[in-house]
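Project outcomes to date are best conveyed with an example. Our students and postdoctoral researchers have been running inverse folding experiments weekly, and each run begins with a structure described purely in tokens. The record below, which covers 290 residues, was selected by the lab manager from last quarter's runs and is presented without edits.
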């Protein structure tokens, strides 16, 4: 861990990244790519020392309420967060100033902040996005070694369902020759159906590999899946988009099962839902129940 002073905290699209780098160890992580210009070891987490002060200033001076999003580059619920508590501090400010919130995570540590997620959702809109890649627990421990297993994430989704907090699942990445099977896709979708997720984001069955992330991914293939690296190199070379040879059939299965169970599966519509700020009339609700 190391500290830096940040000049700003919210992106032009109201994205919030309190940390840079990650200790989850997912073998496919795109954030390792050199194009993001991370000038430090990926597991050496960069902490923005003045992030909370910057965030309060930004929220206090915003002319319009918006959704504030986090987790696109670094999962905010890394173990270090349980020590520093910056996400919880940020959530307290978001709730205080009545902004909406959405987060992408793979960790059940988010339940520490369950109370604040509920409070935000009562006033505006809170959406939890959870990444699911495999319903096989043993495989999950290989692909995503230092993070909550799929079963634990499933329990989080169900708890959020029961609290009325909407959820979105990222079905990504699906690794060719590893988890690109009908059984795996059906297993994940069955979890989503039971958890009554609002939508599932899927850009296709496959993954993306760039300089930096490709080398790390291949190192892990050599470690856990002997000779599979050579199969990837032969099939894909240095391609950026690595599509599963089963993509067409699996996408058909995905769309069909979502359609049958009333789960939103149009990416554009889901992103509109994620970005659209909605404020609830708390006084009207109180009067109704009175």
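After processing, the design step wrote out the following sequence:
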């Amino acid at each position: 861990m190391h500290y830096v002073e940040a000049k700003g905290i919210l992106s032009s699209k109201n994205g919030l990244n309190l940390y840079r780098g990650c200790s989850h160890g997912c073998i496919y992580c795109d954030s390792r790519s050199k194009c993001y210009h991370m000038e430090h070891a990926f597991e050496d987490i960069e902490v923005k020392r003045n992030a909370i002060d910057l965030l309060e200033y930004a929220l206090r001076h915003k002319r319009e309420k918006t959704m504030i999003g986090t987790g696109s580059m670094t999962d905010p619920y890394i173990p270090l967060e349980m020590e520093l508590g910056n996400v919880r501090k940020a959530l307290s400010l978001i709730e205080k100033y009545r902004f909406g919130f959405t987060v992408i995570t793979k960790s059940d540590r988010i339940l520490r902040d369950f109370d604040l997620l509920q409070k935000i959702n009562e006033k505006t809109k809170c959406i939890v996005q959870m990444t699911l890649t495999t319903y096989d627990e043993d495989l999950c421990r290989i692909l995503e070694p230092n993070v909550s297993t799929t079963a634990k994430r499933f329990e989080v989704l169900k708890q959020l369902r029961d609290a009325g907090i909407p959820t979105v699942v990222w079905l990504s990445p699906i690794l060719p020759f590893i988890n690109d099977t009908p059984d795996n896709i059906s297993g994940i979708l069955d979890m989503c159906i039971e958890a009554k997720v609002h939508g599932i984001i899927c850009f296709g069955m496959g993954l993306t590999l760039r300089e930096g992330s490709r080398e790390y991914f291949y190192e892990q293939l050599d470690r856990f899946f002997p000779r599979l690296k050579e199969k990837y190199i032969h099939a894909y070379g240095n391609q950026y988009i690595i599509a599963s040879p089963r993509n067409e059939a699996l996408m058909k299965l995905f769309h069909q099962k979502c359609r049958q169970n009333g789960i939103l599966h149009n990416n554009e519509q889901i992103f509109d839902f994620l970005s659209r700020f909605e404020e609830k009339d708390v006084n009207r609700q109180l009067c109704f129940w009175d």
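The longest strand covers residues 126-132. The two ends are 51 Å apart (CA to CA). The training component of this project remains on track.
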